[in-house]
Amino acid sequence: MELINISNLFYKYNKTDVLEDINLSIKDDDFLAIIGPNGGGKSTLLKLILGLLTPQTGKIDKKIKNSLIGYVPQNTNLNIDFPITALEIVLMGHTSSKRKIFGYSKEDIACAMDSLKKVSMAEFANSKIGDLSGGQRQRVFIARALCSNPKIMLLDEPTASIDVKGQREIYELLKELNNSICIVVVSHDISVLLNYAKNVAHINKNLVYHTLENMQKNINTQDDHLCEVELLSALGKSHVCCDHTH
Fold first, then answer.
1. Which of 11, 95, 158, 213 has the fewest Cβ atoms within 10 angstroms?
2. Mean pLDDT, to the nearest integer, of 156-184?
3. Long-range contacts: 176-180, Cβ < 8 Å, 24+?
């Protein structure tokens, strides 16, 4: 089932082209990795899908309500000294009800605890967010996104500033969630994504789409396009030892 269809999308910042003629279909069982150079338009595309920006030309056709799109922002280290618990952060993910005068309902709390269980963080429900590791904080923010029972989850650089072990744990979690939720990840972490993503969209103003299962193991430069996915595939590599950016 198609969740989002993007057609002939263009976007400019101050008359500077950021995205040009973007066409992309995202299905309900997809694990899509969005890669490309800094400033290539990856985060802008996420903002357009979320409705934070409006397409200037072209169309984004959503088959689901915005409330069913979960979002995990790039930087979850902001205000970590604020005295708030993991459970309280997850409760903020509720979109169907507002906080009551005397606190959240039992149903809201039960839902939040269930989300924490799904990311293996239930035992840290009452821990202050600043006392958690980077990987644990990221799990809490994923749990917050799960609280809205999303059909699709968008994550912007979910493993930034997390050690290698933590990165793999996050992607294993996303792989598990992908059994029931569409996952879209913006990342520079090519070595990890190649082991988990089903499809890859390379964005540098334009979009070039790769289906990993059917990718030919050679480097195709006929259209003057060369990215890390093609290079690693041509070399027969599934792992590399460092991050790659254009």
1. 213
2. 90
3. 177/118, 177/142, 177/146, 177/153, 178/29, 178/31
